[in-house]
């Protein structure tokens, strides 16, 4: 997938503002950003369901606005909300969807059994969809998106609302697909998910790309090796701020704590104690993609 100067407008509002992106075959690529950043609008253009307003876009070598049906036949799409047919069984959801692609009944039956095993749903094959857990429904949605053996799989917030066990199982399924050569494009709000799944990613904000690279590259560029968190009683952190000045490359004040971005968190903690700073609790941790995300997009809540 390759985009150059890609634009999407809705009337006077520009949702995607001239972005350049290239996704290499066989990699897992992520779009991160707060609500309204332009991630979903970009995904809809890639999925050939929303025409672009400007720029160039090629998906699997074709122009989606010209060869939409041909591109869609080679895509798998996992929407943010499961849209399974609750009137059908698990197996029937796979079978009916496969027939939309013009695949033979025999092929779809065989493919459905393969996907049931892949999604660990074989023992639920003849059950109705509605009573399934959220994790099972999500696995079925992903299995259904694979019925046409897509070369490119688009996943919009694939694990939202799932418990940790279900999320890790889905990560395993997606990692296996990547090993099989399927290209993955993912949007997610979970920074740990992006670090687990994505070879490269872009951080979007206000319709533009704020940063691009591998998770490790982004952390190295926009954060420090470690972060020292000093937690205080609410409102007391501001009084402690002068005592930690100069102990870190960057200091961030939150309502109940101070974040000190530094190469050596333990040394910064010892120095803070020597200066008489006494937090309620302290934590030294490695910098994460979430630190990068919040630095680039801010901590203001976006609805």
UniProtKB/TrEMBL annotation:
Record-level GO cellular component terms: plasma membrane
Write out the entry's keywords from A to Z: Antibiotic resistance, ATP-binding, Cell membrane, Membrane, Nucleotide-binding, Translocase, Transport
PROSITE patterns found in the cross-reference section = ABC_TRANSPORTER_1, ABC_TRANSPORTER_2
What is this entry's stated membrane topology? Answer: Peripheral membrane protein
> Mainly localized where?
membrane
Query: Can you give the residue ranges of the ABC transporter domain?
Result: 1-231
Q: Which Pfam families match?
A: ABC_tran
Example GO molecular function: ATP binding
GO BP term, pick one: response to antibiotic
Query: Cellular location of this protein?
Result: Cell membrane
| Recorded family membership | Belongs to the ABC transporter superfamily.
User: Which PANTHER family does the record match to this protein?
Assistant: ABC TRANSPORTER ATP-BINDING PROTEIN (PTHR42711), ABC TRANSPORTER ATP-BINDING PROTEIN NATA (PTHR42711:SF5)
Q: What name goes with this protein?
A: Lipooligosaccharide transport system ATP-binding protein
Task: Output the lineage of the source organism.
Answer: Bacteria, Bacillati, Actinomycetota, Actinomycetes, Pseudonocardiales
């Amino acid at each position: 997938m390759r985009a150059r100067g890609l634009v999407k407008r809705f009337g006077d509002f520009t949702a995607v503002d001239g972005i350049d992106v290239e996704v290499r075959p066989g990699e897992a690529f992520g779009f991160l950003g707060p609500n309204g950043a332009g991630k979903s609008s970009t995904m809809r253009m890639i999925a050939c369901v929303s025409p672009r307003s400007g720029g160039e876009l090629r998906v699997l070598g074709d122009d989606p606005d010209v060869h939409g049906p041909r591109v869609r036949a080679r895509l798998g799409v996992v929407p943010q909300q499961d849209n399974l047919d609750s009137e059908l069984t698990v197996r029937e959801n796979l079978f009916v969807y496969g027939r939309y692609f013009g695949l033979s009944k025999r092929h779809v039956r065989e493919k459905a059994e393969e996907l049931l095993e892949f999604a660990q749903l074989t023992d639920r094959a003849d059950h109705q969809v509605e009573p399934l857990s959220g994790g099972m429904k999500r696995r079925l949605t992903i299995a259904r998106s694979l019925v046409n053996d897509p070369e490119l799989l688009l996943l919009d917030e694939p694990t939202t609302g799932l418990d940790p066990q279900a999320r890790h199982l889905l990560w395993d399924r997606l990692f296996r697909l990547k090993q099989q050569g399927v290209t993955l494009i993912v949007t997610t709000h979970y920074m740990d998910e992006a670090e687990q799944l994505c070879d490269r990613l872009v951080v979007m904000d206000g319709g533009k790309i704020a940063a691009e690279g591998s998770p490790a590259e982004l952390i190295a560029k926009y954060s420090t090796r470690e972060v020292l968190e000093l937690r205080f009683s609410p409102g007391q952190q501001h009084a402690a701020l002068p005592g930690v000045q100069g102990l870190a490359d960057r200091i961030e004040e939150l309502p109940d704590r101070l974040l000190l971005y530094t190469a050596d968190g333990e040394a910064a903690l010892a120095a803070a104690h020597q200066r008489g700073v006494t937090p309620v609790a302290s934590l030294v941790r490695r910098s994460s993609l979430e630190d990068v995300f919040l630095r680039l997009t801010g901590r203001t809540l976006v609805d």
